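Here we describe the complex-level prediction in full. Unlike the single-chain runs in Section 2.1, the two entities below were treated as one system.
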Amino acid sequence: MDIHAQKLQNREKENVQEWIEWLSSFGSTKNEGVTRLLYSKSWCQAQQALQLKMEQYGLNTYFDCVGNLFGKLPGTDAESPVILTGSHVDTVVEGGKYDGAYGIIASFIAVLRLFDTYGYPKKTIEVVSFCEEEGSRFPLTFWGSRNTTGAYDLDRVKDIKDKDAILFLEAMKKAGFDPAQYQTPIRNDIERFLEIHIEQGMVLEKNKKSIGVVTHIVGQRRYQVRIKGESNHAGTTPMMYRKDAVVTASHLIAFLTNKAKEIDADLVATVGRMEISPNVPNVVAGEVEFSLDIRHHKAEVLNQYSETIFSEFKKIAEDLQMDIQVSQWMDVSPVSMNGELVKDIRNIAAQKNLTFQEIISGAGHDAQVFASNIPTNLIFVPSQDGISHNPKEFTSVKELEMGIDLLTEVLYKLAY
Amino acid sequence: MDIHAQKLQNREKENVQEWIEWLSSFGSTKNEGVTRLLYSKSWCQAQQALQLKMEQYGLNTYFDCVGNLFGKLPGTDAESPVILTGSHVDTVVEGGKYDGAYGIIASFIAVLRLFDTYGYPKKTIEVVSFCEEEGSRFPLTFWGSRNTTGAYDLDRVKDIKDKDAILFLEAMKKAGFDPAQYQTPIRNDIERFLEIHIEQGMVLEKNKKSIGVVTHIVGQRRYQVRIKGESNHAGTTPMMYRKDAVVTASHLIAFLTNKAKEIDADLVATVGRMEISPNVPNVVAGEVEFSLDIRHHKAEVLNQYSETIFSEFKKIAEDLQMDIQVSQWMDVSPVSMNGELVKDIRNIAAQKNLTFQEIISGAGHDAQVFASNIPTNLIFVPSQDGISHNPKEFTSVKELEMGIDLLTEVLYKLAY
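The structure predicted for the assembly as a whole is:
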């Protein structure tokens, strides 16, 4: 019996709650949140501690050249492709303990339990702790998974900086991943990717379900809408002579919100940011800019919706003789999870008497990066009150364990 | 013949355009605007230069203890009350050359021309350059006129500071008006106040009129409206589960705007300032605060309107289970100008073949401070494109002269 197998057999009992707390200690904040940004000190500590724990528990570990950490349970079939499972280790600023972290820990625990019960799998399983997904330090997202698929390389980041003007490549080097040593870490040996994650919404909780079997990850489009009216004296300008950008923005927002509800129950449209100019109580606002974020799992619904509202915007601009400019600055296509495995996951959940439902992910996840290349699936556990990206993020141990239980069985089906 | 009369007779010819330019040189900015804040260096220079010019042209001048400058053309009837005419010398930050300044210069010129034609009046006429009206340095308005009527005294300003944390009383002392010397500058000898001012709106221009005979100055009420919803993830929160403060604000603003148009053509309602929280594109806004400024010349219309919209706000808050708080932070009553003199001014304008109309002032003016105590009137000349509080503020020399011409005749009627 090799050293890894000895470790795997003699390991201490894992405890999901303790491990979540332990991982959250790297980057913990005074508000009981977690801030663990790509290539920061707390990020380095977390990845190194994860590597050490994986080694202690008998996995073969290695980092790729951008800082993705892999922990391997080798398959008995040396030629077989890899089943990859995991999530991202980075967090937003003042984030919670579960987003990303749970997916890494759940995958790690599932693999340990599989070995306990069944020994080595036929196909190699790798647990991954992706270096970056959130885009919370540098203005890019999915650096970890997009390197793994080959969508990104150093060219993508050579000019970008964080808010302290530290170059991406400098930060990377300082964290021990010297860009000079970069060779594309693209992986062509991965057969499937499987991720488990907290929902970050309230659908499962509202529907009293323990498991969400994700069928699609939405496409996202983001726009900036700029309304140019006329800034005027609030007392001396009769209503009929005004070109009030705040009033026009209000009409557009009311319209686009109603239209989103009307077109499809799964469509979401959000105006989260508004800037008013000059923004003083006694002056009619001459200019308003607002953001518009729209998401749906079908490109044709996004097309239909955006065409409908922007043609109405155009009409309103003409009617009011005001200038309304719309510019798009993000376009992420929707993706489908592997349909056959969705069915299998449903069946496994049913056999285990877990309450579950199919669900669409409204947030982006590493899974979406893989989904257009290889069969990919995503499983959700509930988020209390739908809260995420916040120190209050919470999922009960019972729900965390149900997720691990399901994931274990799904991995068994895929790798044994 | 006394020294004043000699000066009055031998004076240089006045030129309104030159005098406007000259006064604007005190506090002129690199953007060709004027910034002349209460008790600042440029303010001191302007008041001193005005005093000197008034003296050179034969008026008896004096400052009261808060820095209002008076230039007197004494009446032959020593017992007669005073006809006061003028406006304010202070400006907003980056204001124009006409707001306030024109009223001082026009009154000054009118008095000179009256003396040319008719000699000394029966009743004393005083030209006033009020120290402050705009509220642009310290958080209070009408410091000049409200001291003259006795509405304000030192108590009102003892704790207030400008944005550089300079105490009002310090600034006052530094400008040469030592608060230790303060004795109420209340004036009980004033029979009437008459002000001429630029319209600061576009009504006269749109209607092709040279003169606005003001019948009322509007009442103003200002409110802060605070909407508390729920901040949520823009992707994972279905539309039906949202308590989106931006969407609710948009409904309220659309509603209050339509209702204002519906209730009365003279009613204006303005949301000029909005603050959104957290104000990021991919988060449903949990909180919005907006300002609401409403104005009309009849208190009952303001009452009816505010009751209508706030009871609807309450209903909306209940329907949406969101918290909507309304707090009022300004309440200025509407005032009427002296009705008989309005008729006389109309008649005089008609005799002079000036195009004119009755008009409601949507902006506040020194005239409103006097109007509840003594017969008070206000005359407008047009503002090009309705622009004011801006370096682009402009009124043609022809229109400025028509205003002076009218003012001169009205003063003749009142004082001779």
